[in-house]
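User: Okay, second chain of the day. Same drill as before: sequence in, structure tokens out.
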Amino acid sequence: MTDYRLLNYHDAGGPRPGLSVGDAVADLESAVAAETDGKAAFSTASTLSILEKWDAALPVLEAIAAKMEAGTIDSMALSDVTLTAPILYPAAIFNAASNYKDHQLEMGAEDKATDKSVVKPYMFVKSPAH
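Assistant: Same drill. Structure tokens below.
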């Protein structure tokens, strides 16, 4: 099995899902359409839509990755694409309120060592979809 990674990259039309094998990136919309004769059981509209139908996408992605490794599919150099966030519109974002010393000081904390046996991290969630 060929090692591959899902990613998002930006082209003139905006963000697009892609697949990388080594230093090559294939556009998933065109690669999946070619691999499935336009009859994919999953959407290539976003990386998230691919992940949501992972069982259907997995064999197709593996086949595309194998073709990329063999050099029989159109691809771009990884260095020529602009990568974007892996999930463009997440349902939730988990945040650390104060995750490094300088930030604690900016928030008005005392400049002393933190006893991690008693201090628990302060986390919060943002829901960007709402």
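Residues 93-126 form one domain.

User: Thanks, on to the next one.
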